[in-house]
UniProtKB/TrEMBL annotation:
PANTHER family: 2OG-FE(II) OXYGENASE FAMILY, PUTATIVE (AFU_ORTHOLOGUE AFUA_3G14880)-RELATED (PTHR10209:SF812), OXIDOREDUCTASE, 2OG-FE II OXYGENASE FAMILY PROTEIN (PTHR10209). Residues 7-91 form the Non-haem dioxygenase N-terminal domain. It comes from the Eukaryota. Keywords: Iron, Metal-binding, Oxidoreductase. The keyword Iron applies. The keyword Iron applies. This is Non-haem dioxygenase N-terminal domain-containing protein. One of its GO terms (molecular function) is oxidoreductase activity. Gene3D superfamilies: B-lactam Antibiotic, Isopenicillin N Synthase, Chain (2.60.120.330).
Amino acid sequence: MSESTTIPVLNLSLARSPTTKPQFLSKLRDALVRVGFFYLENHPVPEQVQQEAMQESRHLFALPLQKCEVDIVNRRHFFGHIRTGSEVTNGGAAGLYCLEVQTQAGVWIAAPPLPGTLVLNIGRMLECSTHGVCAATTIDSTVGNYLFLAYLTGFPDVAARWYPALLSRAVNKQLELQVLGH
């Protein structure tokens, strides 16, 4: 991640116009390669859908014992209820209340929810499938009253094919130069 103290906010509407698309792509490339984490505004997910999903999440977390039936440890996929303190993201238990993003220098910066945006984190799968050109960001959480919905996706075939492979610095540098357009 770059040594910025803020998370970039990308406006998806800029990608829809031929005159502003290069500006959007430049910011997206910088977010993918240098930061690994960004907010996306003017996205196509309707506010009503987001609010309904949050309401259902609040309802789930308000259930007494039933939520333990869908505990993530009992699920085959990364889906379900995660008890406070059972999520480990940075070598310790996470409260899953407020996100923080780690810079390459190891400094943690806050990534609070921004109204009207989606939060995108570049995961290890994308980092791996781009041979390290896109940066995976280490995230953690801090204490606070904060609920968020995570949608995690992966590419199992890419992981099986690329993750075990050791990639040379020359290949990584060449790919980075291609992505950056140099």
